[in-house]
Amino acid sequence: MENQKQSAVGKFVSEKILPPIMKFVNTRPVRALQDGMVYALPFIIIGSIFLILSNVPIPAVAAAIKASGWAAFFNQAYTMSFGILSVWAVVGIAYVYVRNEGYEALPAGLTALASFLILQMLQISSPLVGAMGKAGTGITNAAGNVVMSGSAVAENVDKLPKALQGFLSAPVSGVINITWLGGQGMVAAIIVGILVGWGYTSMLKAGWKITLPEQVPANVANQFTAMIPSGVILIVSMLIYAGFKGLGNTDVLQFIYKVLQTPLQGLSDSLGGALIIGFLVPFFWFFGVHGGLIMGAITSGLLIPNTFDNANLFKAGQLTIANGAHVVTNEFYNNFINLTGSGITIGLVVFTLVAAKSVQLKTIGKVEFIPGLFNINEPFLFGLPLVMNPFLAIPFFLTPVIVALSTYLVIYFGIIPPLNGFAAPWTTPAIISGFLIGGWKMALWQAITLLMSVGIYWPFAKKYDQVLLAQELEKEQEEANK
Fold first, then answer.
1. How is the chain split into domains, by residue range?
2. pTM of whole model > 0.70?
3. Disulfide-capable partner of 319 in 238, 288, 314, 433 (CB 3.0 to 4.6 Å)?
């Protein structure tokens, strides 16, 4: 009876729930988002290293680096790698979209970048405004030391003629505002990348291109092929910019950030968001669908900006929840919800190596041990298997949810600090990744989550082991009686 219920549930999920989800995941925009974001990963990871070097979590070393001036050099490298991740995203998404349609893709990626820049105001607020007053940053030197306080700046500026004061406090124009090239521009970059990819391929399919004779070299002909689609997209981008500027004295990136990205980031950073992500990853895997791939594609556009915001707070020495640090970031997803693999299966690994009596569990445990250290658990998912296995479904679903819940709470209530923005690769072993993304307290908490996994999986694995052992003994007895 129980097996019939499980079969009915599995059939319902397989026939009613998974098909529309897989249809959505396999759409051109989602595939472009998923594969296009990959192009940003090297810059995020390498940039994270520069972030740590400029903010070494050892006060004496950090002070020495800052005094030497090298912190400014590391910050420069961080800003132009991790700090402009929206640039890599918009280029990568449009590139992949057009590549998947079988066309020359690089011109589309460059067109998306040009469109992304056209849609934003080429100005930044005057640095003098932020430096003035009691709450101002003051004026700092290359080493980051304050050489004139905010109050002193205000007092001296007030002595200048009004016309000169107005000139000094006016926005700086004719420059690219890197604020919108980082995390704050991510959702806009995703939208622009997808729309440019769609528009570019649609025009090429409709024959909107300049075709040159066969004698013209391919590299030259390809640029003429791109000319009409690129030109149309850039003209449309200019008109959209003009509309936002003229009607609301704003731009598309600021509008998207306020209306769309901020609410979505808040949702992704909530306790409910953490629990939903923690549940859905193993849920999809249980039915044989790559849960990490699905949830990664859906959440990366929001969790990576959360990581970026925390990195900036960490760089400024203000990484606290009170200052706006996020609890749920891309590293929360990679290094807690998916720690040791989807379902946080390290507890199952430990049982198979220490207490398993069945040949099946002992054998697969040895195979999984090394991959599990690097957060890879496909040997368990398909070899044990965990997929459609009712004996292990409860711990497989429950462990990531409990880890997500407890990790959210210990960060939210200040027991351990928020994640610092370092983008540890998802294959980084536990404990090591914890230290990189949050220091020794985070490493210690990761060790505790591993123990949680052992405690949750143990009784279920023990029962499953008994079932397998009984089956093996029965099979041996049958063979002996032949």
1. 29-120+176-249, 126-170, 269-481
2. yes
3. 314
pLDDT tens sequence across 193-212: 999 999 999 999 998 877 76
Token pair of 280, please? 């859905």
Q: Residue 304: helix, strand or coil by DSSP?
A: helix
Q: Is 374 helix (H, G, I), strand (E, B) or coil?
A: coil
Mean pLDDT of 228-246: 95
157-163-164-165 Cα dihedral, nearest 10 degrees: 30
**C-beta contacts of 260-267 below 8 A and 24+ residues apart:** 260/187, 261/184, 261/186, 261/187, 261/188, 261/302, 261/305, 264/187, 264/302, 265/302, 265/305, 265/306, 265/326, 267/302
Question: Alpha-carbon distance 261 to 186, whole Å?
Answer: 8
Q: Are 308 and 82 in contact (CB under 8 A)?
A: yes
* C-alpha closest to that of 230 among 263, 205, 256, 197: 197
Q: Which tokens sit at 154? A: 């205000």
Cα–Cα distance for residue pair 463/361, rounded to 1 Å: 12
Q: Are 274 and 405 in contact (CB under 8 A)?
A: yes
| CA atoms in the 13 A half-sphere facing the CB of 409 | 7
Average pLDDT for 352-367: 92
pLDDT tens digits, one per residue of 287-328: 877 888 788 878 888 899 999 999 999 988 899 999 999 999
Please state, in angstroms and as integers, the Cα–Cα distance from residue 280 to each residue in 66, 142, 377, following that order.
Answer: 43, 47, 17
Closest to 391 in 3D by CA, of 473, 470, 461: 461
Q: How many CB atoms lie within 10 A of CB 2?
A: 7
Measured between alpha carbons, how far is 336 from 408 in angstroms, rounded to an integer?
Answer: 10
Q: Residue 381: which region, alpha, beta or left (left: phi > 0; alpha: psi -120 to 50)?
A: alpha
Angle formed by the axes of helices 359-373 and 346-354, nearest 10°: 130
Confidence band for 8, pLDDT divided at 50, 70 and 90: low
Please tell me the chain's helix, strand, coil percentages from 3-state DSSP, rounded to the nearest 5. 70, 0, 25
Output the pLDDT for position 2.
Answer: 47
- Amino acid 124: pLDDT: 81
CA distance 184 to 307: 11
Q: How many CA atoms lie within 13 A of 434 on its CB side?
A: 20
